[in-house]
Write a structure and sequence with these properties.
- The chain is α+β, with helices and mostly antiparallel strands.
- It is built from 7 helices and 10 strands.
- The strands form 2 sheets. Strands 8-1-2-9-10 form a 5-stranded antiparallel beta sheet. Strands 3-4-5-6-7 form a 5-stranded antiparallel beta sheet.
- Strand 9 and strand 10 form a beta hairpin.
- Helix 4 crosses helix 6.
- The protein is globular, with a radius of gyration of 18 Å.
C-alpha cells in the first residue's frame, strides 16, 4: 500500500469509495499470528498460535476469557484487543449486576461492532487494529462471531484470521460437514489440525506456542459448561491425543513478527 491524499484520517472516502485507514487496520490483523474457531451443535472451540518477541520473552496471550460463558481470540495489535476485551468484560458484569443474567453473545458482539464503527465516523480517531473471534454459549446455543476493524461482525460456522490463515481456512472448509455432529474432543482435534496447517514445514505445535479454549452446553440438561482455557502444560495431552506437536520439549515459536 502507498500513501495517498485520502489516508490521513478514517472519515474520508476515496473516489473509489474506500476508507484507507480501515484497510491499513485490516493489514495489522493479517500480520498477527493465526487464531481460529469452529462450532458444533453443543460446543465452540478456539485455537491460537502464540508468538514471542525474542528467545528471552514470554509468549503473548491470544485467548482471553470474558465471562464464564464467553471467550475471545485475537489477531493483530494486542493492546487494541485488550481495550475491546475490557469493554466486553464491563458489559458482561453490568448485565449480571443489573439483570442477573449472562449477556447474549450476539448482543455483546453488536456492541463492540458499533464501538469500532464509531471510530470511522469521528475525526481524530483510528480504527482498532485487531480482529476478534468471539465464542460463547447462551440460551440459543453455542455461537461463533467474527469481528473486524471496520466494525463488521458476522456469525460463523468456522473461521480463521491472522497471518497464514488461508491454509487453516482450507482445512476448515474441507471438513466443514463433520463439525456439527462432532464431540467435544473431536472438535478440539479438528481445531488443532487446522492450526497445524498454518505452520511452516519446520515448525510444530507445542505447549509453549499453543492455546485452546472450549465452551459449550449439555443438550439434555440445558446447563452451560463454563469456558475452559488450556494453556501451557495443560495443552500437552491435547496435542498428544491428536498426534501433533512435540510436547514439553517442543520447538520454540516462529521467527516472525509478533502481535505487539
Amino acid at each position: 500500500m502507498f500513501r495517498n491524499n485520502y489516508d490521513n484520517d478514517a472519515v474520508t472516502f476515496s473516489p473509489q469509495g474506500r476508507i484507507f485507514q480501515v484497510e491499513y487496520a485490516m493489514e495489522a490483523v493479517k500480520q498477527g499470528s493465526v487464531v481460529l474457531g469452529l462450532i458444533s451443535k453443543t460446543h465452540v472451540v478456539l485455537c491460537a498460535l502464540k508468538r514471542n518477541a525474542e528467545e528471552l520473552s514470554s509468549y503473548q496471550k491470544k485467548i482471553i476469557p470474558i465471562d464464564s460463558h464467553m471467550g475471545v481470540a485475537l489477531a493483530g495489535l494486542s493492546s487494541d484487543g485488550r481495550v475491546l476485551c475490557n469493554f466486553m468484560k464491563t458489559q458482561c458484569l453490568s448485565s449480571r449486576f443489573q439483570y442477573g443474567r449472562a449477556l447474549a453473545i450476539e448482543r455483546i458482539t453488536d456492541r463492540i461492532g458499533a464501538k469500532a464503527q464509531d471510530n470511522t465516523q469521528n475525526y481524530g480517531k483510528r480504527p482498532y487494529g485487531v480482529g476478534l473471534l468471539v465464542a460463547g454459549v447462551d440460551g440459543d446455543g453455542p455461537h461463533l462471531f467474527e469481528f473486524m476493524p471496520s466494525g463488521m461482525t458476522q456469525e460463523m460456522v468456522a473461521c480463521a484470521i491472522g497471518g497464514r490463515s488461508q491454509m487453516a481456512r482450507t482445512y476448515l472448509e474441507r471438513h466443514l460437514d463433520e463439525f456439527e455432529r462432532a464431540s467435544r474432543e473431536e472438535l478440539i482435534m479438528h481445531g488443532l489440525r487446522a492450526l497445524k496447517e498454518s505452520l511452516s514445514q519446520e515448525k510444530e505445535l507445542n505447549v509453549e506456542n499453543t492455546s485452546v479454549a472450549v465452551v459449550g452446553w449439555d443438550e439434555d440438561t440445558g446447563k452451560t459448561e463454563p469456558l475452559k482455557l488450556y494453556d501451557g502444560p495443560e495443552v500437552g495431552p491435547l496435542l498428544e491425543a491428536g498426534g501433533d506437536g512435540e510436547g514439553e520439549g517442543g520447538a520454540q515459536g516462529e521467527g516472525m513478527e509478533v502481535d505487539s
